[in-house]
Write a structure and sequence with these properties.
It contains eight helices and two strands. It is mainly alpha-helical. The chain folds into two domains: 129 residues, Winged helix-like DNA-binding domain superfamily/Winged helix DNA-binding domain (Arc Repressor Mutant, subunit A), CATH 1.10.10; 64 residues. The termini are far apart.
Length: 207
């Protein structure tokens, strides 16, 4: 997997690529649309309600630096119709990640951060974060030993697997009740902090 594909943005490091992708509202809206599937610039422009020329320029730059993928180009009259999507990644196992070069892991993590941040910013602008009292967004660091690190990783996996089960259970219920589903973004993460904390974090209690 490459962090850059063409010319304009290709010399940027992965951190710069992600910062660029998230530094403009239109690019963020493009990213969340392409998270859902394969679209042409014209289709994206219609969805985000932005001028086609503006959207096409942003898509070209995002593809150039590897933030999104060109899926195919199809001849249409006297021009080529390009189709794009978010960078597609398989589900990597811990063993897969161990044998990867650090630079490749950085690209993978960077693209996940890009998609997540874009989704969160779009939800903030749309008001869907504050409209649901069950919205849960929190973070904190925990100072743990080796066994504790293994336990946190196992808990992340357990919770993630349970979310897939919940989706399947919901689908079965909705098939009978005809209730319409909602898209709930679920965040999972556990990684070493960039700066070692000198002490234990203060536990936040409910208000």
């Amino acid at each position: 997997m490459q962090a850059a594909r063409s010319t304009g943005q290709r010399k940027k490091r992965i951190g710069e690529v992600i910062s660029y992708a998230l530094s403009h509202r239109t690019r963020i809206l493009i990213l969340i649309v392409l998270n859902e599937g394969i679209f042409t610039p014209a289709q994206v422009a219609a969805i985000v309600d932005e001028p086609l020329k503006n959207v096409s320029n942003h898509i070209r730059e995002l593809a150039d630096c590897g933030s999104i993928e060109l899926v195919k180009s199809v001849p249409r009259r006297n021009m080529m119709q390009h189709y794009y999507t978010a960078v597609q990644m398989p589900c990597y196992t811990e063993e897969d990640m161990k044998v990867m070069p650090p630079a490749q892991r950085d690209v993978i993590y960077g693209l996940v951060i890009q998609s997540l941040a874009a989704e969160m910013m779009a939800a903030l602008w749309k008001g869907t974060l504050s409209s649901d009292p069950k919205t849960w967004i929190t973070w904190l660091w925990f100072n743990v030993d080796g066994e504790g690190r293994e336990d946190i990783a196992a808990e992340m996996q357990r919770s993630w697997d349970r979310c897939w089960e919940i989706q399947e259970e919901s689908a079965h219920r909705c098939a009978e009740s005809k209730e319409e589903t909602r898209s709930i973004l679920v965040l999972h993460g556990g990684f070493p902090r960039a700066k070692k904390s000198p002490g234990l974090p203060r536990k936040v209690t409910e208000q």
